[in-house]
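Sorry to interrupt, but I need a hand with the structure work. Could you write out one complete protein record for me, on any chain you like? Just paste the record in under my message, thanks.

. . .
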Amino acid sequence: MKKQLIECVPNFSEGRDMSLIKQITDQIESVPGVKLLDVDPGKATNRTVVTFVGEPEPVVEAAFLAIKKASEILDMRKHKGEHPRMGATDVCPLVPVSNISMEETARYAHQLAARVGRELDIPVYLYESAATSPERRNLADVRAGEYEGLPAKLALPEWKPDYGPARFHARAGATVIGARDFLVAYNINLNTTSERRANSVAFDVREKGRIKRIGDPVNGEILLDEHGEPQREPGLLKSVKAIGWFIEEYGIAQISMNLTNISETPLHLAFEACAQSAENRGLRVTGSELVGLTPLKVLLDAGKYFLQKQRRSLGVSEEELIKIAVRSLGLDELAPFDPKKKIIEYLLEDPANSRLIRMDLRSFSNITASESVAPGGGSISAYVGALGVSLAAMVANLSSHKRQWDDRWEEFSVWAEKGQTLKDELLRLVDEDTIAFNGIIEAFRLPKSTEEEKAVRSEAIQAATRVAIETPFRVMQACYQAFDLIEAMVKKGNPNSMSDAGVGALCARAAIHGAFMNVKINLKGFKDQAYAEATVAKATEIAAKADEWEQRIRQYIHQEIEK
């Protein structure tokens, strides 16, 4: 199962004394499963922005500890800075990164806010997607009046905190916690040195557009509305802030953008809009620059977008999608683009959890054939299944590019995407099966001198054994889900590759039976008999159906070959 990841970007009201900030970031780094990505202090603003990432529960714990430490060591009564603020931890947004919805992220924001209000006695307001009312969605509205205006604000019924007391906390102030979309800082490179022309493109695309003028668009008289405010011509893109500037270091002008909702305006659409606007103005986009980090999905979506424009199958590997995105967006024009340093999920990877699938074929075979008990049959079953699914995905991709089948490319693209998804799941399970086995070994090594130690050891063994049962069972499920893909490629795919899909069926069936043996052997000694019986029943059904499906596919292939 893919990990859920969220990012937390708390802003602390201290940007000059880094010893204080380190005390806060030490709290964050004390939580297992959380990775501190960035610490960005500002002297003029007297404010530090911290970025860390992890699974939801550890991130919420780390955020709480950081807010707690900030309330203990920072004193808002002494704080001065250029940036608006209302608390020691001024704002603390949670951002969905991968495999988690905004709604789920908002629930974690409420969980964090409730704990801060309850345990720290700090007034907490919720904003953006976690807001309890439309009037509280906008951070600027919630923060209006800042720290100095808090005593009066807390006395107003309409500004009662969402969590915590409606009582002024002189030292910590108030904190705003929320859930918002990922913000991507993105620059588009132009073949000009003119900042004014770059600004023209920026005004075309940014959400707030440009001010309306009479006659000359630059120097003409500004049109005002009935309230005396300048009228605006909206830009092409929602949730985009942009401005043009000249970068002396590169000798080019750029459009500098903040994409504040990548679900509404993804990276590739911002690039395309700028390219079209530039062309309309006699300019050309030569490439782009990604500032900071990005979720993996941003580049995968871009890769798929550009493949779709070419009417090519989207069912290619993750690595290939990233390569296509980098080339199409020109992300390596100004400097080499290293996905391992720019993609959040890759920064969080633990090499120990993907040791096997990173090996070359010879090394993988050698370690399997060594005196080590792992990797064993479970990991090999997962890998055999991955190879089988890969063959089916290959046939789907070949079929999508077959001459005279141009009108069917989308049909085969859908099949190929399914194959890639199942292949990636099975590759993860290659390592997860070995990790699960090692978990049992570690549990058996726990001390057992006292009754309490024996109880802890027994519970750990049972928990590890359950993981070791569920992992090969997931191999069985993934391989079984591949059979409709395999059969479709045998009967509908490129006929010259029918036997390749047939080999895929043989691999999937072998993987299912290999994984089934691992399920059964790990069930020996497992105490929950009801769970054991139910698991065996489900696994037996999968194995039987896989046998029937594989036999039908094999018979069909032989009949077609012998015609």
Summary: The first strand starts at residue 5 and ends at 8. The chain has three domains: 5-179, 184-347, 350-562. The chain has a mean pLDDT of 93.
